[in-house]
Design brief:
The complex is a heterodimer of chains A (339) and B (360). With 339 residues, chain A is of the alpha/beta class. Chain A is 35% helix and 20% strand. The N and C termini of chain B lie far apart (74 Å).
Chain lengths: 339, 360
């Protein structure tokens, strides 16, 4: 099998190239597409290869541009909207939640907004509260949307392709902090998005670690450290948040009896709560050896000052010490506890 | 006088004192040189809309219709005139007051009534009701009640036509209230900057719910926003179906020829209140008995009938014949719609996504 090395960032670029080459109905619209800064290396030179009619850098109008993509998707196109930061998508909430998500239902299933809306999580670097948000929980709550968060280069490439080709509106959330992850990828095979869901990346028996996007990467790094210290962790990567299928996680927790969900969103009403609710509803009594734990952002906007930033974001060490604490292998309490 | 001077003097610095005064423009409309069969088509369509809306008003009053209906009685000439310049492969989007728009594209009366009644044979299979209409095979892509919710969608449908090298255009029907939404200004700028083939049709009926336009905006004419975005525009008497049709024809051709967007503002008035069947004279500071009475004399149907009679294109019997035939169609469609079944319970879940695969 012919493998080629990609980073998470270049894998996204490869997906765009594949889509634009093979599907004339695909076009890309958003801010910063003709600039090298706003979207990392994920869109480099696309406008040179495919022209500025199909790679459209727009006025500063998130609402109208997202709405226009929705409208174009009703008229036979498969647009990808790119929002360089999820924070900026908020201007487009009507187009996403009131129009795209509900269009199929409201029309009795006769029309579908086949638009992919890409929101990039781009945080840290002292950028602060409005350049940091991970709002996947909001979109996961909306019936009619599909929500995808890839954690690996393979998923960044293949799930983007599946998302763009899907008939339903898809929120595709990628993460700047993953852009340098490296992997060798096989040639592209197109998979229907509806068949994708949570995946066990690593098998173990002592504890189930569930991650979403970047936090999956934290779980994988923690797993390596824990393994050296005699703890066997099973890591499940959620990948598709909406519609959410918890069966893979339930299966894992039925085996390990212990669950930690690591989530890059805020604590209250975050997606980690949904994961835990699904598991607790589904497992037989006596299966859980200990109460489930969630590691999340504290319920506060992101700070800009450096020491506050270090405190704010969950680290690999935080995940390791949480595992050790939950398994009573350490006297230290888990770091991220609600105040 | 050049075009800019002419416009400014005609629209008196966007105040539209002439056009918005109901006592003006009550005379029969000027139909000279206009194709007679087309005039009859316009008349029949306006009657069809009027009688359908009045049927819905009655159904709501009697409690047969369970949800709110936003009626455009009095505004029929706009949909009738604009649609005469469109085809069923154009991409038309509406808002909460869109029964006229969907009917003008060719929707079946029965399917419209069935939709409002929540029946399975409705335009949206009973899932949308009065405020979420759909008839894409006739070019009506959809209407929603979020004010200005479909304006950017119409721009996108126009963008799609441009990318598809088609001469079809996007059409956005919106009201004077919708123009206050930020997304409309984004859409005008976007359409103009990218030369997108989309026609914005503002039905300015001088009211947004209970508030008169001068309580919400500094000027009456919303066409000032077209001017601000360098978009060609016309402002017309919305109760003159010929004037609307001719203006629409010019603006639609501009769009089809790859020249970018266009904007049509049509001044009119609704006979009923914002929603349902009451006249709502007591609602809103500026809605008065006198105003309503004068606007009813500016009735688009009555004015066209007067013109046809004056020109002896029709006589009284012809008109009565047309009225009765359409009344019968409406009554018949209503009866059929009432006898249809409701959607099954499974429909609540199996239309959320295009297809919900079963994962192993």
């Amino acid at each position: 099998m012919h493998l080629k090395t990609f980073t998470y960032g270049s894998a996204i670029l490869a997906a765009f190239e594949y889509l634009l080459e093979n599907y004339p109905e695909v076009f890309v619209i958003g801010q910063g597409l003709w600039s090298p800064w706003y979207v990392g290396n994920t869109m480099t030179d696309l406008e040179k290869k495919f022209g500025i009619k199909r790679i459209i850098d727009t006025p500063v109008s998130e609402s109208a541009c997202t709405g226009a993509a929705v409208g174009a998707s009703l008229a036979g196109m498969k647009p990808v909207v790119v929002h360089p930061r999820m924070d900026f998508m908020l201007y487009a909430m009507d187009a996403i939640v009131n129009q795209a998500a509900k269009w199929s239902h409201m029309t009795g299933g006769q029309a579908h907004a086949s638009v992919c809306i890409r929101g990039i999580i781009n945080r840290g670097g002292e950028q602060g509260a409005q350049h940091s948000q991970a709002l996947h929980a909001w979109f996961a709550h909306i019936p009619g949307l599909r929500v995808v968060m890839p954690a690996t280069p393979l998923d960044a490439r293949d799930l983007l392709i599946s998302s763009v080709l899907c008939e339903d509106p898809v929120i595709f959330i990628d993460d700047r902090w993953l852009y340098d992850l490296c992997d060798d990828l096989p040639p592209i095979t197109v998979k229907p998005l509806g068949l994708e869901g949570p995946k066990t990346l690593c098998k173990g028996k002592d504890i189930t670690l569930v991650g979403i996007g970047f936090s999956t990467h934290l779980c994988l790094e923690a797993e390596k450290i824990l393994r050296k210290n005699g703890v066997s962790s099973e890591v499940v990567d959620i990948r598709v948040l909406n519609p959410f299928d918890s069966s893979e996680i339930v299966k894992s927790v039925s085996k390990t009896g212990t669950l930690i969900v690591v989530d890059g969103g805020w604590r209250t009403c975050g997606f980690s709560g949904e994961v835990i609710a699904c598991v607790v509803e589904a497992v037989s009594s006596g299966v859980m050896k200990r109460p489930p734990v969630r590691l999340t952002l504290p319920d506060a906007p992101a700070p800009t000052s450096s020491p506050l930033e270090k405190m704010y974001y969950t680290s690999v060490e935080d995940v390791v010490s949480a595992v050790l604490s939950v398994l009573r292998l350490s006297t230290l309490a888990p770091k991220k506890i609600v105040v | 006088m050049n075009m800019m001077e002419k416009r400014t003097s005609l629209f008196d610095n966007w105040e539209l004192t002439q056009l918005s005064e109901p006592r003006n423009y009550q005379d029969p409309i000027d139909i000279s040189g206009y194709d007679s069969p087309a005039l009859i088509r316009h008349l029949k369509l306006m009657y069809r809309i009027r009688f359908a809306e009045q049927c819905l008003a009655m159904g709501r009053k009697e409690g047969i219709i369970g949800g709110p209906v936003h009626l455009g009685v009095g505004q029929e000439a706009i949909a009738a005139g604009v649609s005469s310049a469109l085809t069923t492969s154009d991409r038309v989007f509406g808002a909460h007051r869109s029964h006229a728009h969907v009917l003008s594209q060719g929707a079946s009366l029965q399917a419209l009534f069935a939709e409002v009644l929540g029946r399975n044979s409705g335009l949206a299979k009973g899932m949308g009701g009065s405020m979420h209409l759909y008839d894409q095979k006739n070019g009506f892509y959809g209407s929603v009640p979020i004010v200005a919710g479909t304006v950017s969608l119409a721009v996108g449908a126009g963008l799609a036509a441009k990318l598809q090298n088609s001469t079809d255009i996007g059409v956005s029907y919106l009201g004077d209230g919708a123009v206050e939404e930020g997304t409309v200004h984004e859409s005008l700028n976007l359409a103009s900057s990218m030369k997108i083939p989309v026609l914005f049709v503002v039905e300015n009926n001088l009211f947004a719910s209970h508030m008169h336009i001068l309580q919400r905006q500094p000027k009456v004419s919303t066409a000032r926003f077209a001017y601000a975005n360098d978009i060609p525009y016309e402002v017309v008497d919305g109760n003159d179906v010929v004037e609307v049709a001719l203006a629409a024809s010019r603006l639609v051709e501009h769009c089809r020829n790859g020249n970018g967007p266009a904007f049509l503002e049509a001044i009119t008035y609704r006979w009923y209140g914002h929603v349902d069947w009451r006249e709502d004279i007591d609602v809103g500071v500026n809605r008065s008995d006198t105003d309503l009475r004068e606007w009813k004399k500016r009735d688009p149907i009555k004015r066209l009938v007067s013109s046809l009679l004056e020109a002896t294109i029709c006589n009284d019997e012809d008109i009565i014949g047309i009225e009765e035939a359409i009344k019968q169609d409406v009554d018949h469609a209503w009866e059929l719609a009432l006898s249809d079944v409701f959607p099954g319970e499974h429909t609540l879940f199996d239309r959320v996504y295009a297809k919900l695969e079963q994962r192993i």
